[in-house]
Amino acid sequence: MEEYSASATTVAFDRPIPLLRGPIPAGRSEPGQYVLAFRSLDSWAAAYKRCEAQIKEQCEEGARIGCAVSASNNCKPPWWRSFSGGAVVDMREREKCEEREFKECLGAAEVKCSGFAKEKCSGAFLDARVAVEREEVEGLVWLASMPEGSSRWWLGSLVQARGSKTNRRARDLLLKNQRKQSRATY
User: CB 3.0–4.6 Å: which of 91, 113, 115, 146 could bond 59 by disulfide?
Assistant: First the structure.
């Protein structure tokens, strides 16, 4: 007899992974009403580092296999030695040769994989949108440009503008942060 109880028929699913980016209202220069943006510069940086680490790890795994094959090929005795009645190959010497070749190859591959990962991630991530709070300056400039005799409806708009979010390209935010840091060091 089949059991149709809740415990027998319920399928448990893993908890959903939180979204990296969420929809926010598009800026004036963007087509459409919404764009997908990272919630903060910190979440953008974490996603960028994760992307870079994953690509580097995959690249290095492939390089390990390639370096092992290359080291084995570089350290094997020449094919013609077996015909000339040459001495038996010393396996310890060959093992040392393969280790040396493997380490050299892997060291070069790590540097190349790091550059490759940065190249692949930076293209997509520098053009990604990041949600930022509207600067209070925007609201204050808008307030200063209002005629003195206008009604008080602008106050609600000002408060709303301070709490709302807009988006910027990650490239622009990074440049802005670099400029702030360079000014702070002088």
Answer: 113
167 CB neighbour count, 10 Å cutoff = 21
Question: Could you give the C-alpha distances from 116 to 5, 44, 47, in angstroms and in order?
Answer: 54, 19, 17
Q: What is the CA radius of gyration of the chain?
A: 30
State residue 80's pLDDT score. 73
Contacts of 124 (CB under 8 A, 6+ apart): 51
The pTM assigned to this predicted structure is 0.65
- What is the β-pairing status of strands 129-133 and 34-38? parallel
> Which amino acid is present at 54?
Q
Q: Give one word for 167, left, alpha or beta, with left for phi > 0 and alpha for psi -120 to 50.
A: beta
| Close Cβ partners of 117 (under 8 Å, ≥ 6 residues apart) | 51, 52, 53, 55, 56, 59
**How far apart, in whole angstroms, are the C-alpha atoms of residue 55 and residue 73?**
27
Question: Is the per-residue pLDDT at 145 higher than 80?
Answer: no
Kindly give, in sequence order, each residue whose CB lies less than 8 Å from that of residue 133, ignoring residues fewer than 6 positions away. Answer: 162, 163, 164, 165, 166
Model pLDDT, residue 164: 66
